[in-house]
Amino acid sequence: MNIFIYEFKMYVKSVLAWSISIMALLTMFMAFYPTFGSDVAIMDKILENYPKELLKIMGMNTGMSLSSVLGYFVFVFVFIQLCIAIQASNYGFSFLSVEERELTADFLMSKPVSRSKILVSKFLAALLALTITNAVLWITSFTTIAIFSEGKDYNINNLILLLLTIGVFQLFFMSIGMIISVSVKKIRSVLSFSMALSFGLYILNALRNIFGGELLGILTPFYHFEPGYILEKGQYNLPLVFISIGIIIISIVATYILYLKRNIHTL
Question: Is the whole model's pTM more than 0.85, yes or no?
Answer without folding.
Answer: yes
